[in-house]
Amino acid sequence: MSCPINKDALDKLKQFVEICKSNSAILHLPDLNFFKEYIETLGGKVPEPQKMSSGPKVEPKEEPQETVEETVESDPESELEFDMTGCVEPDKLDDNQKMGDPSKEISEEDSDKVEEKRMEAVSQLSEGNIEKAIELFTEAIEFNPNSALLFAKRGQAYLKLTKPNACIRDCTRALEINCDSAPAYKFRGRAYRLLGEWELAAKDLRQACNIDLDEQTDEWLKEVTPNAKKIEEHLLKKERKKKDKEEREKLERIRKAREAHSRAAAQEKPGEDIPTGPEGGPGGAGMPGMGDFYKLLQDPEIMTAFQDAEVAEAFQDISMNPANFVKYQSNPKIMALITKLSSKFAGTGMNFPGFPGAGAGFMGFPGFGAAEGMAANPPPPSKPSDDDNLD
């Protein structure tokens, strides 16, 4: 009989089986209930999932930053595994755990009663009568609700009853009264360990050892350290990734800002593009067309010609008085340059600075346009006045 499932479907089925082998807890998902029931009809048994409701909180307490892409779920290295042996379900707090009135003033008679109740409670605790011990510690607390030792000892009794949350509540109150209470740190650290709060457990037990080291506290600390270090190293790695990403984003912002600045600076460099005014001329009064004019003067032949001192002087003379053009009509060097300029500016309507406007000929030079007659018929010399050369 041939297999009724094609190769692609078989490959996917193999992948699914491998996932189930590595984490059988997924078979308890509602969507996979049909598969779980099928396994059970064949006589198989799906392992119960580990009780993780009170397990370690891998995520840091602060709100996750939106900018961090490397989340714990997407990072294979962040799938931490812990030995949950010895962990218990969290207990519910009850109203019988009385905390007393912290504003109560303690009289000498109250102090005597407190000591009496405390000693009796310690005796009951040592004999294994834990419920009775808790009752006596509660009576003592009502006489003196500001005794860190009473809360720490009652927390120890709750710990013996495997009520870690009740123990944590009492020990936290003890530390509010006395922040250096080694028993409070010790028993609260142990309670956190029962709940699988490895990092918090290690923190409290280390503090208890720093204040008052004893063999039991040291033993409990060694027990939680491996799991606590896993979490601490994971959080450090995650924090490094976050900082690396922030640094990369910062460098990218700087790079983009520099590029934008360079582009803006390139556009604003003086002399590269002279802004034009009306009809294509540059901005500035009395200088229409100067941007295009100077571009046309970039012709190598024209630039070389203007380097000649004689040519430069002649053009300066003509720019001062266009009528002086007649003095240079017989100079082939200057006339050749004028012809060159004429061919470049023909039809543009632009004027050379200092010369008459359009209609007077190219740059106002006689011989080009309306001023041509000036060259053919120079103006007659003026007659001397009657007073010329008279004494």
UniProtKB/TrEMBL annotation:
Keyword Transmembrane helix: no
UniProt entry tagged with the keyword Repeat: yes
Chain segments annotated as coiled-coil in the UniProt record: none
Ranges for region Disordered: 45-113, 235-286, 370-391
Residues in STI1 domain copies: 299-338
Subunit structure: Homotetramer. Interacts with Hsc70 as well as DNAJ homologs and Hsp90.
Protein name, per record: STI1 domain-containing protein
